[in-house]
Amino acid sequence: MAESGRQPPSDSLEETSPTTHNFMIPKKEINTVPDMGKWKRSQAYADYIGFILTLNEGVKGKKLTCEYKVSEPINKLVALLNTLDRWIDETPPMDQPSRFGNKAFRTWYAKLDQEAENLVATVVPSQMAAAVPEVALYLKESVGNPTRIDYGTGHEAAFAAFLCCLCKIGVLRVDDQIAIVFKVFNRYLEVMRKLQKTYRMEPAGSQGVWGLDDFQFLPFIWGSSQLIEHPNLEPRHFVDEKAVNENHKDYMFLECILFITEMKTGPFAEHSNQLWNISAVPSWSKVNQGLIRMYKAECLEKFPVIQHFKFGSLLPIQPVTSS
């Protein structure tokens, strides 16, 4: 698609005109369990889930190593994530008695807290500078909690919200879809895994052995979409070490499995029971549909996760306006 001219808006990737728009710092709106109804009826929920599903469709049947368009904003986002990665190297873990929750994470986080708006300003064109504080908040929320030194699916959702906002202000476009997942989100995952390992972060709101994974959810959704109609890899193969080792560079789902097996000891069926059960599902499209349902039920409809979500002008708490 040509760069010039506005692209037709898609459901969740439509643009907001930055000149007439009143940006605001997103804030907490879900304070009690009954508030969850507001979230499920909100424009934010509709746009967020629409964004996740648009990307799910975009990467269907594609390898991480396939060819796709990489725009300048995509490269700038990767550079931003590379900076976060470099800061980890510059902030080694501290010697401390407790094994988990290394306090050096707070030093690392303080740097992001200070620099987030400057980092986001490198991605957002100067004529849209007004959007930077609003968008930057989601970046700060996406790396874990500095008080508890934990990380979970709510933080991951904040990163997806960050990308969704960049689409809404027109920095990312419809034809960036594959690169959003394969280049940006994948790089984000690498940085988060490094944070989790380096600072021994606790899983936030983990359901332990009954959860899908201690830290992530979205790469399992998009990763299962990548594998739909694969000629020889079936869901049963992801518990096979050889299949994972040979294919993880092409498929996000298998990369997740590899990380789990590096981090956990003992039989897979014991430490990752939910995933073990999923390996019995006959097709990847069934796995994909099941994971989307599970994501809504276990993450998006759970108060402990959503109470931390922030709402602004781009992802508003107001009810959906039917167009």
TrEMBL record:
Reaction catalysis annotation: [protein]-peptidylproline (omega=180) = [protein]-peptidylproline (omega=0)
Question: Which GO terms label this protein's molecular function in UniProt?
Answer: ATP binding; metal ion binding; peptidyl-prolyl cis-trans isomerase activity; protein tyrosine phosphatase activator activity
State any GO CC term: protein phosphatase type 2A complex
Q: Which GO terms describe its biological process?
A: mitotic spindle organization
Enzyme Commission identifier(s): 5.2.1.8
Polar residues: compositionally biased ranges? 7-21
InterPro entries in the cross-refs: Phstyr_phstse_ac (IPR004327), PTPA_C_lid (IPR043170), PTPA_sf (IPR037218)
Where does this one sit in the cell? Answer: Cytoplasm; Nucleus
User: Which of UniProt's keywords are assigned here?
Assistant: Acetylation, ATP-binding, Cytoplasm, Isomerase, Magnesium, Metal-binding, Nucleotide-binding, Nucleus, Rotamase
Write out the ranges of the annotated region (Disordered).
1-21
Indicate whether Oxidoreductase appears among the record's keywords.
no
What are the transmembrane regions? none
What is the similarity comment for this entry?
Answer: Belongs to the PTPA-type PPIase family.
State its role.
PPIases accelerate the folding of proteins. It catalyzes the cis-trans isomerization of proline imidic peptide bonds in oligopeptides. Acts as a regulatory subunit for serine/threonine-protein phosphatase 2A (PP2A). Modulates PP2A activity or substrate specificity, probably by inducing a conformational change in the catalytic subunit, a proposed direct target of the PPIase. Can reactivate inactive phosphatase PP2A-phosphatase methylesterase complexes (PP2A(i)) in presence of ATP and Mg(2+).
What is the name of this protein? Serine/threonine-protein phosphatase 2A activator
Q: Look up and give the organism this protein is from.
A: Sarcophilus harrisii
